[in-house]
UniProtKB/TrEMBL annotation:
InterPro entries, per the entry: B3/B4_tRNA-bd, Leu-rich_rpt, Leu-rich_rpt_typical-subtyp, LRR_dom_sf, LRR_R13L4/SHOC2-like, Phe-tRNA-ligase_IIc_bsu, Phe-tRNA_synthase-like_B3/B4
Species the sequence originates in: Salmo trutta (Brown trout)
Lineage top rank: taxon: Eukaryota
UniProt feature, compositional bias: Basic and acidic residues: 253-272
Stated name of the protein: Leucine rich repeat containing 47
Amino acid sequence: MDGQESWPEIEKASKEKRRELVLQGAVIDEKISSNGGLCSAIYSLKLLNYLEIIQCPSLTEIHGDIQNLTTLTSLILCRNKLSSIPKTIGNLKSLKVLDISVNNLNALPEEITQLSDLNTLNVSCNNIESLPDGLCHCTKLSTINISKNDITRFPDDFYRLDLLSTVIASENAIEELSGDVLKLSALKVLDLSNNKLSDIPYELSDCSKLKEINFKGNKLKDKRLEKMVNGCQTKSILDYLRAGGRGKGKGSKQADGDGDKADGSRNAEKTQTKKQRKQKKKKTEEEEDEVDELNRLVVKVLHVSDNPGAFTVKVANELKDVRPYLVCCVVRGMNFRSGNALKRFLVAQTKLHDDLCGKRTTATIATHDMQLLKGPLMYDARTPPMLKIVPLGRKEMTAVELMRQLQLEAEDQRKQRKRQNVSGLHKYLQLLDGKQLYPCLVDAEDHVISFPPITNSERTKIRKTTKELFLEVTSSTSLQICKDVMDALIVKMAELNKFTFEHREEAGSEGESDVPPDPASDGTTSGELVIQQVRTVDPDGNLKVVYPSKTDLCTDVGDLNVIW
């Protein structure tokens, strides 16, 4: 039953006729728990365009009165404990974005298919076993994320979504990708990693706009194709499918058209000597081993004990109730000089922030140019007026001034765009609501180099000339989340560096192209990365965590080779 006690957050939104409302965290969760649900007054805010209720484990249901919010265009209900979604959601005809990820959902109501304006659907990290039939009625659907569920198949009409450009369906139990995938003419990104696929249809190569695919973690019948999906780029895989692979796909169709030649070929194979067959088998195995070796991502770990001057980060006790979890490491061997290498890295970091980091609600990544750091470092908690930083692209200011400036910019964005959604740093302001102390990473000269989850410092910004990176991941949730995010970041860096090494792009501009590559200075070859361990200690010097340890970087990426 919905609680009847008035909530100041809702009263303020009603009084100011606001079109955006964000409710999150422990304070809201306690209200939901004590009231037995959301305050019923929330369903009377009929001017709302944007409603976000996240990180409230006590929120197990949404009342059917949600249908009253007919002007909603974005509904974000992630990281709660919702066990169901009301059927009345189908009445929200203006809804464009629906995010109900990280809940306890077992099924989706069929009424979701009535959301004809829906553009983005995120139902990841639930227990959903199937998607409702009729999704084709969501004719504007462009992005769908169904990862980390128990889904076994795509509904037949799924392939009729003409505008669908991004499909994230990793970590399910999907057994088949239909050849009808070629009907998804707008498809650009397809992630079906860690499912139960045994084949990849050759028709996938007819998706002309496809730029990124991921089939890692599937046990494919074609073992060479399986090795390729674990290491090769999208173009190579599509070319292989287009050529028919090993007697499959389009190539097999052409072979069927010439039966006599095919029969002759088979007879010739039968007459081969045992020695010839052995030689052919050996050659095939050598080729596959060569492909496997070329696809391998190499990461070498340097121990703290092997480097007496290794960085150590001291963590203040005051962070216990602010943002207590931190892991760090140093990475050498990244090549940002070539072409768009730096841009690709920054895009990958943003994607990790949006996906694995839950839009920075669970964790935040920060990267620094190691040559610009002065250690030892201190992970501290300071009052907003005492925290001074030079934010990326801005002049030095206190946290109070920065937050005020970002708030004003957010309001200007809303007015200029005539909508409630904001972009950039402005999306993360609410993550520090109610905090008396702000977390920050400080160098030996008391310069704040990081202010999570908001921004980094311009002082340590990475550039094309950066040879050595200091990476940090912070979280208010758990240490394991920090490690998982750092693992994913390093794997992605290894993949990007391998891509840069293989494609030999011309050096970028920005006045830095005259800096010659010097891989020898990093001790790396063939895109290999070197990871230097970093110790995190308490104020008394007692070890809290060292990253990476032997239990880290144990990913399911079959081609990742970690050298200890």
